[in-house]
Design brief:
The protein is mainly alpha-helical. The chain has two domains: 58 residues, no CATH class; 91 residues, Alpha Horseshoe (Serine Threonine Protein Phosphatase 5, Tetratricopeptide repeat), CATH 1.25.40. Helix 4 packs antiparallel against helix 5 and helix 6 packs antiparallel against helix 7.
Length: 177
């Protein structure tokens, strides 16, 4: 019969590996910490190696950025790498630091569009354009908005009637992905 503590340690070890593969290093770190303090010496040694990797990843990802623009570029690179949750975290952090950050709104518009959240994409793009009208011109040629090309609300945002204020997009939903 298998020792239930050992079985739990194996299960935790496997959960930690899964979290690492998903690049959820905080979660993996917490799980591996449990395994390291467990009764199985062999699993504890393996978990310690993975724990060190998690700590290294977390240290490198908490890179300090010299400028907000550098931070934004990093967030865009995360979008391009398919690390959407982490990108969203960085873009929201930029927005917290400066609520008038048009490029953070623009980045959130791109991220929302890539994820298929049309309403959120339109709302963020609307805010980005209001903060900096140059974003209207940039969005016209941005292939990241391809999904919105046939949406009349997108067209109205990018090509408002002369003399008419640009339409107000609906507020983004509060649902987190």
């Amino acid at each position: 019969m298998t020792d239930p503590r050992f079985a739990q340690a194996v299960q935790n070890y496997e959960l930690g590996l899964k979290a690492m593969q998903e690049r959820k290093f905080e979660r993996a770190k917490a799980i591996f910490s449990k395994v390291v303090t467990g009764s199985s010496r062999e699993l504890a040694d393996r978990a310690a190696v993975h724990l060190a990797t998690c700590n290294q990843q977390l240290a490198s990802s908490s890179t300090s950025f010299k400028t907000p623009e550098e931070h934004y570029d990093y967030a865009v690179s995360l979008i391009n790498a398919g690390q959407f949750e982490e990108a969203q975290t960085h873009l929201e952090k930029l927005l917290k630091q400066n609520s008038k950050s048009d490029y953070a709104q623009y980045g959130l518009a791109i991220l929302s569009c890539v994820l298929g959240n049309v309403e959120e994409a339109l709302a963020h793009l609307d805010k980005a354009i209001k903060l900096n009208p140059q974003n209207r011109l940039q969005a016209r040629n941005d292939s990241d908005f391809q999904r919105l090309v046939d949406d009349p609300r997108f067209t109205e945002l990018l090509y408002p009637e002369p003399g008419q204020p640009a339409p107000v997009a609906p507020p983004p939903s509060s649902k987190r992905r």
